[in-house]
Amino acid sequence: MSELPHCPMCNSAYTYEDGGLLVCPECAHEWSKDAEAAVDDDAPVVKDANGNRLADGDSVTVIKDLKVKGSSLVVKVGTKVRNIRLVEGDHNIDCRIDGIGPMKLKSEFVRKA
């Protein structure tokens, strides 16, 4: 017998299948089986300058010269940034750039590599 997932609303273990849906008898929540494979709702949806969806661990390329605030350094066009992390806020990419250090970038100034 296959193990069914817990209810995403009330975390009940008593879910059952009804056709193409999974149903929780305790809170009457219904959801599709395909919803389990979808991206979780807690993760922020971040898109690059071309509209491609970004995820944690992606590599991106800077598409515009960016001045580093409080410094005379500049992040040049074409700089490749590896292993990004997505965060909430105005600057929604947290990363580390070689030669500069830890930085926060806006997704509108990068494209997926």
TrEMBL record:
<feature type="domain" description="Protein YjdM N-terminal">
    <location>
        <begin position="3"/>
        <end position="32"/>
    </location>
</feature>
<protein>
    <submittedName>
        <fullName>Zinc ribbon domain-containing protein YjdM</fullName>
    </submittedName>
</protein>
<feature type="domain" description="Protein YjdM C-terminal">
    <location>
        <begin position="46"/>
        <end position="113"/>
    </location>
</feature>
<dbReference type="InterPro" id="IPR013988">
    <property type="entry name" value="YjdM_C"/>
</dbReference>
<dbReference type="Pfam" id="PF03831">
    <property type="entry name" value="YjdM"/>
</dbReference>
<dbReference type="Pfam" id="PF08274">
    <property type="entry name" value="Zn_Ribbon_YjdM"/>
</dbReference>
<dbReference type="InterPro" id="IPR013987">
    <property type="entry name" value="YjdM_N"/>
</dbReference>
<comment type="similarity">
    <text>Belongs to the YjdM family.</text>
</comment>
<dbReference type="InterPro" id="IPR004624">
    <property type="entry name" value="YjdM"/>
</dbReference>
